[in-house]
Design a protein that fits this description.
Blueprint (H helix, E strand, L loop, with lengths): L28 E2 L2 E2 L8 E4 L12 E7 L2 E4 L10 E2 L2 E5 L7 E8 L7 E9 H7 L1 E7 L16 E7 L8 H17 L8 H8 L5 H14 L3 H14 L13 H13 L1 H18 L14 E2 L6 E2 L2 H24 L7 H17 L8 H20 L13 H18 L4 H6 L7 H18 L4 H13 L3 E10 L12 E9 L2 E5 L8 E4 L3 E6 L2 H4 L4 E7 L5 E7 L3 H14 L9 E2 L4 E2 L2 E2 L13 E2 L15 H14 L1 H17 L13 H22 L6 E5 L1
Antiparallel strand pairs: 1-2, 3-6, 3-11, 4-5, 4-8, 7-25, 8-9, 10-11, 12-13, 14-15, 14-20, 15-16, 16-17, 18-19, 19-20, 21-24, 22-23
Length: about 700
């Protein structure tokens, strides 16, 4: 059985630069229905065995299931590492196999050392659906001398889930109802449906619900209207401006998700140069006297010890340079900001200004914007650039500390340099002149940012729609065969690839005027290639039709599992509407006179393995999938249906006590009442679909 590995995001516990994972579950969709098996595991090692002379280990994880093995990255010199990597395997139909998670200490010269393992019974997981907690690492039974009490523990959250996505027509009533609610906005005598969703959504799933709603309304062209409705509802229940949008409400999470979905290219253009400079220079930066490391400075023979004051002064100069460069980039970026983001901030700015018109609250409208732009977008990206795809790897301890201090400065500017923020960390005082200047520049920037007329907004949106948006881009290695006949070498040539909504193009460099391309409509499959084919486990193949109608295959090598799966996911989603996708493929290559995978001699015959063109990652930077978003929203609403009914009855009772009544005639039904009918219809449709499709195709996913 072929294993399919999902996106892997590493988050090591180094320094202070770690951030919240932005990953979402994997999904699979086949023949009008969607089947998903996920095993999510947030894994944090503690007290691992120390195998190296430095008193630590270089641990990595090896996951085994149904004869397939996948490995995580190596975390150097740590007994308390943290991974955030995802491994996906096709679920064995019999489900008798066990999932084994092993921890090893990597060694460059000698043999790797075994550190312990955790074994999961898939049959048991199918029954209970979820496991979470700390799991003690166990020794290998073949090595009884290992003291299992000293192997450490592993924190896991394991979940197995099946989903069924129905054809689009089934979701139209739900989508139309939600869109109608957003277009109408709050009406007197009516209970807003969005209010019910907000008040019955728990903190644990609010982020997921927010991003699903944002993607759905983006697809419907109503993202600005949806967010504006949330702004109004949030302001109606806010009396104290200092707490506005500071909680993790549905409004806050939705705006945060909207920025990540719609503004990532903008974010990269603003932060990228400064972030890269920090990583490249690797300067020692520290302002906190309690953390300053005193080191020797000077040339050979003239060493002297640098004083604490000198270290702080030098650090201050470095941070001021980074911060000044970043603020200058932000100030120049008004026209670069996407039109829908500018229009949304204009709505927010106006709503807050109307709600808090007093002169004493003159900064609140600016802080409302920066609470999202600075505190929930710029600052987290600076602190954890890998999680925002600004860097390929997490920062080392020194760079991570620099990024953290820079992020703190951005937060202070976002808070408009209040007395409370200054008093919190007084050792940030050396940056005060730059911060104060930054506040003034930030206000000027926001004033220009929200100064967008309706006509300008429409013109900008029209211009954006005419542009071919880049879905994914970056360098890959393409296999080049030498001569004709069988493949005799594994030579790969580095080219720069760019995936748009129309084609996959490639050239020598990003700026090359001459390039080649594969039209997306001609792609028939995007799949992995067996490791033995090229001696590398990060190779994918794109099967496509050339201009003459002949089938061709391009073999592309990625640098890591993460990149491989991100490219596969993006390609599969970009080709989601292709009607001639293959049902089977060969995971090997045709070498000599036969396929390396199944030894068939017919080069153009049916493949020996089924394609997985519906297996994709689901995350904030993926192309939109309206049916999937509708299904995920339906599943959530179904789970909180009883809570929504109780809340609805409570609000209706309040209305009656206040002398307000509402007709129960069907044509006058409010949003919540109609929603309960829609949910019932969808639930019935799912029940019929489950009877018609008894066989389930599941995936088991382990997130480390």
């Amino acid at each position: 059985m072929e294993a399919d590995v999902a996106k892997a995001e590493g988050a090591q516990e180094q320094g202070d630069g770690n951030g919240e994972s932005l990953e979402e579950p994997l999904t699979r969709r086949e023949s009008g229905r969607h089947s998903e098996g996920t095993q999510d595991a947030e894994r944090v090692r503690r007290d691992l065995a120390r195998k190296d002379r430095n008193g630590a280990s270089d641990p990595f994880v090896r996951v085994r299931y149904h004869g397939k093995t996948q490995e995580s990255s190596v975390v150097k010199k740590s007994c308390y590492p943290r991974w955030n990597e995802t491994f996906e395997f096709d679920l064995d139909e019999s489900a008798t196999e066990k999932l084994c998670v092993e921890v090893w200490d990597w060694d460059l010269v000698s043999k790797n050392d075994f550190l312990g393992k955790v074994v999961f019974n898939i049959q048991g997981l199918q029954t209970i659906q979820q496991e979470e907690g700390w799991f003690r690492l166990r020794p290998d039974k073949s090595k009884p001398r290992v003291d299992e009490g000293n192997l450490g523990s592993l924190q896991l959250q394991v979940r197995l889930r099946d989903e069924t996505v129905l054809p689009s027509s089934y979701y139209q009533p739900l989508v139309q109802l939600l869109c109608q609610e957003v277009k109408m906005g709050p009406k007197d005598g009516k209970i807003p449906l969005i209010t019910l969703i907000d008040e019955t959504t728990t903190a644990e799933c609010r982020q997921e619900v927010a991003i699903n709603l944002v993607k759905l309304f983006l697809g419907q062209g109503l993202a600005k209207e949806f967010l504006d409705l949330l702004f109004k509802l949030e302001l109606d229940k806010t009396c104290e401006p200092n707490t506005l949008f500071r909680s993790n409400s549905l409004a806050s999470k939705s705006m945060e998700s909207f920025l990540k979905v719609a503004g990532m290219q903008y974010l990269h253009s603003i932060l990228g140069p400064t972030i890269n400079r920090v990583f490249e220079e690797k300067k020692y930066v520290e302002l906190d006297p309690s953390k300053v490391e005193i080191k020797d400075v000077g040339c050979s023979g003239l060493h002297r010890i640098q004083t604490e004051s000198e270290v702080i002064q030098q650090s201050s100069r470095h941070l001021q340079a980074y911060l000044g460069e970043l603020l200058a980039a932000i100030a120049k970026s008004v026209k670069m900001c996407p039109a829908n983001i500018r229009a949304t901030f204009r709505q927010l700015f106006t709503r807050v200004e109307e709600h808090f018109p007093e002169s004493k609250h003159k900064n609140v409208k600016f802080i409302a914007v920066t609470s999202f732009l600075s505190l929930r977008f710029f600052s987290p990206a600076v602190m954890s650039p890998k999680l925002f795809h600004l860097r390929e790897k997490h920062a080392d301890a020194r760079t991570s500390r620099t990024l953290l201090l820079l992020a703190k400065a951005i937060q202070t500017i976002g808070n408009m340099d209040t007395a409370a923020s200054r008093a919190k960390e007084v050792w940030m005082a050396p940056l005060q002149p730059t911060i104060q200047q930054g506040v003034a520049h930030m206000k000027e920037f926001i004033t220009k940012l929200v100064d967008i007329e309706e006509k300008e907004e429409l013109d900008l949106q029209k211009a954006l729609t005419l542009q071919t948006l880049i879905v994914k881009e970056g360098p890959l290695f393409i296999h080049k065969t030498k001569g004709k006949g069988p493949l005799m070498s594994s030579s790969f040539k580095k080219l720069y690839f760019s995936l748009t909504s129309e084609a996959l193009s490639f050239a020598k460099t990003p700026s090359s005027k001459k390039s080649s391309f594969i039209t997306l409509s001609n792609i028939r499959a995007a799949e992995k290639v067996e490791e033995k084919s090229f001696g590398n486990s990060h190779v994918m193949q794109i099967i496509y039709m050339d201009e003459t109608g002949q089938s061709e295959t391009a073999y592309l090598q990625c640098k890591c599992v993460n990149e491989l799966n991100q490219w596969l996911s993006a390609l599969r989603k970009a080709c989601v509407n292709n009607t001639e996708m293959l049902c089977s493929y060969h995971p090997g290559v045709f070498r000599g006179d036969k396929w390396s995978c199944c030894h068939q001699k017919d080069k153009s015959g049916l493949g020996c393995d089924k394609t997985r063109h519906r297996v994709t990652l689901q995350e904030w930077n993926d192309p939109l999938d309206p049916d999937l978003e509708s299904q995920l929203i339906f599943r959530h609403l179904l789970g909180v249906r009883d809570a929504m009914r109780e809340k609805y009855q409570e609000l209706m009772l309040e209305k009656r006590e206040n002398g307000l009544s509402q007709s129960e005639a069907p044509e006058n039904m409010d949003g919540p009442t109609r929603l309960f009918h829609v949910l019932q219809d969808l639930e019935d449709a799912h029940r019929k679909a489950s009877i018609a499709n008894k066989d389930k195709n599941c995936l088991v996913e382990l997130q480390t």
